[in-house]
Fold:
Amino acid sequence: MTPSTPNDRPVRALLIAESASPELTSVPLEGWSHSRAITRLTPALTITQVRNAEAFARAGVPAAEYRAIDSEAVARPLWRLGTVLRGGAGRGWTTVVALNSLSYAYFEHLVWREFGERIRRGEFDVVHRLTPLSPTTPSVLASRCAAVGVPFILGPLNGGVPWPVGFESARRREREWLSYVRSAYRLLPGYRSTRLHAAGIICGSRDTMEQMPRFCRHKCVYIPENAVDPARFAGAPSQEWRPPLRVVFVGRLVPYKGADMLLEAAAGVLRDGLATVEIVGDGPERATLRDLALRLGIARGLTFHGWVPHDRLHTITARAHVLGFPSVREFGGAVVLEAMLMGVVPLVVAYGGPGELVTPRTGIGVPIGSRSRIIDAFRSHLVRLAADPSVLAPMSEAGRAMVLRDFTWEAKARRVIEVYRWALGRRPDPPVFAVRD
Structure:
């Protein structure tokens, strides 16, 4: 038997996923999916916040594979303060991220207090911070791991997509006051140190890659933030590409998601009975959208579902032909990948995360521009597709194939493990990812 070499040994990873839960959506679901996918491929221990412990246990995760840290003494009052400052749930996300950075520092302090000695002893080959995703949140663990010779991996980092010109009204309605001075986070204590001492930085979008300072570009690796778990969805879709055109919007009902633009763009085909639109989600814009629908006279072909549990969401999405998603400031775009997995063709604004995921063979992207230009572009495509939905069939097949090949959590975890091997000197170059349709 040939003896194993260091390059052959599985990488032992300590995963920091402060936000991780299979019972929630957005970042918590991503932290959960990412950490579990890595753990299935290599020996790993996940550290999460105590609020997630019961969800881990209900999901049947062995106790030896995770540890819950209780930082609620700081995290809970800061969350409450953030809710007050942002003017209620669903708005002012930049404010929440800023306050979470303070509570996260305390969380990392507790992590090092409990695991610092084990990291020093070399029980883990790498330490990887999966969440938070925000590039504004520094890490004291980066320098501490570097001091004891253990590579610290940061990311995926994603965020900071600039507000597009012409959407200042949406920005104010979102109460994104801190976004006007967001770049000031580079002056905060820990910003430079985190990037200097990280052995590798995973960037979840091209935009985030471009934000990285020159002194750390050589350690940055592009791997799209989002992925999908095919097991969470029904089997292969069986679409019938016949009129009327079925359009679905999935997302929080907040200004930048653009559900109002979709309704205005679809008004004509809705009134003519050539299409239907289903709005899935809830948020502060719900009443405004209902009023808009009444003014446009499109109530007959429009359905508001409200909030729908994630495990039932696919039953609504899968029956659509098109995901209508005119969001103008989307960082990742998980909903786009999930739609493509179900054979639903995305019609998106080619800006931010969706613009990196949708290709001409897998969907339709309209250029970022003024509100009226986006509405006109969406209207033009909806009119064309309503006349003959069957033209979507090739894009549906190509999109589903792309997601199953390149955008499952397992595929992402394999790339991340290659980042570990690169940081450990087991391969000469980092993995390179490109969207292939």
The chain has 16 helices and 13 strands. The longest strand covers residues 44-49. The chain has a mean pLDDT of 89.
